[in-house]
């Protein structure tokens, strides 16, 4: 005791970096807004995908929308329960790639990685095209320029993510809440009306050219399964939750399942009751919105909210795919440059790769949402199945208390997702699913070839083994290419003398008079190093210099070529400088084994 105060142990407080500490982790509600937009926003295109298939059998077939949606909701419930198990077993993030790599082996992890790459790229494309569809429902003039608008949106997302502006859960809460309230308001408002408040879009003739048989129902089911994308996102990001992380993540997963199931069933009830068929210029969701709110300000506001949420859902891939590519680079399955992070920090190579792939797919599909959906869900269901099979393998290996019951849950999920995936594959094969069937094996081949290359390089370099002591070599020689006596020459020679035992300057000239003038100036200056002048009658600079360097490197002598390069103060003047030094460095690296160094001389003008 001193002056009436108890003695306290003082510990230094280290300031936390951004992203550290419980305050920066997610609550359940924040996790719902940050990680569920991909899944929740799928109600904008999932029910419409069912309608577009069923209408082939006439408007009477639209009554099957509800039972098909109930089947999809049952599958959703099985997935939510199964992913709650994934969260418990993999509290460090249970992505399909991590689960497959740990529990199923190398081939399965390659399959999971390839399917996830396809899924992330298609998430961007489908979210952008569906968002523009929603926007065009409110502003029809945009429908003619759908592809350019999608590409502009993609460019905006790319620029934002290259700058390293990350999503904040608190910022996303407002659009998420507005979206949920708007969709549930559509359901409740439409159910309270005896007939739609307004009808939007242009009528299109509906001609039945198929019967409502098993094949058509299976096709509608497979199309509607696109509404299940994004269910796994919470399990992938368990470490971002506050403690107790597992319980909060599981609670968020169940909240997502309940909200998504409620919205899907509610919209299906409205489609069945009002026989909502496709109309020109508007989406099915826009028709239901007009039926509930009319065609006034609430209609426009809801379509804008849907567009914003779909744009934010597309942005989730920019947070997911670059991280996945960095993991693949760490496992030597992609070029190591994908593991490089900028100062912000951002995996910029991954962001650029995602943008280029998404742009190519948007152009190839002409930004048609319904041409992309058959490709969309197959990759998702591959990931679903691998995650569940990995958990079954985990339970069978670890055998904790009650493992059989847990294995039954995940086994049931695996069977259901496998069946759904096979239905998707066979019913959508000719509509574009064949692209995924080709792309996924090609990506797996790419990953395995890159990994094999890195393995062979590691063997050749002897990584992980202690090498023999280095053998002594003759003294080093630094070669400095120069053109004239100047401060640049003084700068280069000073640096070269600090690097090597011997320094020689080399000049290539085609004019004998200029060559003689250079030698006289050199004799007057007398910098203390030798000058070799090479005559080049054909005015070639690079080839004579390369031959000189090759000759000097004979006998195993260590050679360094120091190339001085003028750097202007302002980048706009770079085009005024000759690029001979850069060209010489490129050729020397390609044709010799010498050390090539670029020495900048920074101008003040």
Automatic annotation (TrEMBL):
It holds the Pfam family AA_permease_2. The keyword Nucleotide-binding does not apply. Keywords: Membrane, Transmembrane, Transmembrane helix. InterPro entries: AA/rel_permease1, APC_K+_Transporter. Its main location: membrane. It is a multi-pass membrane protein. It comes from the Bacteria. GO terms for cellular component: membrane. This is Amino acid permease. The chain crosses the membrane at residues 43-63, 70-90, 110-135, 147-165, 171-192, 254-271, 297-325, 346-365, 371-395, 407-426, 432-450. It comes from Streptomyces diastatochromogenes. GO terms for molecular function: transmembrane transporter activity.
